[in-house]
């Protein structure tokens, strides 16, 4: 029997990426966004907002028990879920708008996966050192020092993950009360389960999976291509200016000698870079071009600084790639190198691909506003604004008093002993104000009809603040009245807030005996 060669494996194990520390405008901007977004996330549940004695005083609260959503002075009821749906549509359109105009700025700056990964990498750098130290630690055998550093890092990661899961549950109930219950172990089991799940996902996604979440788990990298075109502003490499790569003349080689030595040492570690999305080791790294002493070289000295700072482990010089999240850290790294070798900044920069082509040909480039204001972005902006204005209008014109009317159809009408025809209705009265109100019911119709409330001889009801009350209502017609002998008679039930002098109504029908 002849042995057949086994098929090649389609699985490639993940090579860890150890981003190098970088300073610059975009890195500082990302730190600022990290502080702001995490501050909002962790602090918001503790902000108080006085809504009155009978309502919760948490500024942002998703009250599942009472089926309410509170956002400062705004209160959303279950039947007003269209506000939430509208906000979600606006968020989606906003994502389309920013992606078509500026590329994956959401992924690079404000995505939760990016923010928490940045935080976890910062902790890792504080404890284990910068890139070279982390590479050496990764390659070292397990000993006391490695265990100590790893356990310390994992403990800090776990604390951040617990705080993340804990902050999430505070949005769904009163934060101070839940915090006391969690500490005293008297909280509902759902709270502990939710915290445990979010802690595990934060710990694993931010600490271990990192770029794998963006590449393999998130669908957005595959959708973004439909949102972008050559006029989209994104992170790109000026190939016409950087190529061919090389150290150049003797004077230039002297300036970059230290940079190249550092880059060679950094590239020796696992996960140092990827070319065209494929991991490489030091022994199979593509060789630098061989240049003669008189060769003209580009501004790129192939120092690998842009690759070593990339949290996705890609080489932006290979062109646009699905893995790129446009975090712009490669811009900071490259600008720093250009400053050191006396070359102008912008070899890697935010630019449109159409501009790169124009620059290569020596043609003038479009101004920034022409890249931003394109038919696609204008359309997204117009739809986004229309939805936003519609929601604002609906928010400010809604009344604090509402009612729904549901006729009881079994039976459709009742004949009383004196021949009177009676219809029964379930009227749901909703007081959306922050104080108790007196509501008065009445009806209007072209025919003679009378209204009564079950359980009271009066037509007025006291409705507590922020409460819905179900009231059974009887509407009757005397035997001699036209409504009693007609198949159906239109009527309208009204409710009036006697304090605020506002009212609302619902149309319905009165069923008679017919002809």
UniProtKB/TrEMBL annotation:
The chain crosses the membrane at residues 29-47, 81-98, 154-171, 191-209, 378-396. InterPro entries: 4Fe4S_Fe-S-bd, 4Fe4S_Fe_S_CS, Cyt_c_oxidase_cbb3_FixG, Electron_Trans/Redox, FixG_C, Ig-like_fold. Residues 264-288 are annotated as: Disordered. Residues 291-319 form the 4Fe-4S ferredoxin-type domain. Keywords: 4Fe-4S, Electron transport, Iron, Iron-sulfur, Membrane, Metal-binding, Transmembrane, Transmembrane helix, Transport. Pfam families: Fer4_18, Fer4_5, FixG_C. The keyword Transit peptide does not apply. Residues 264-273 have a biased composition (Low complexity). It comes from the Bacteria. GO terms for cellular component: plasma membrane. The keyword Nucleotide-binding does not apply. GO terms for molecular function: 4 iron, 4 sulfur cluster binding; metal ion binding. This is Cytochrome c oxidase accessory protein FixG. It comes from Sulfitobacter marinus.
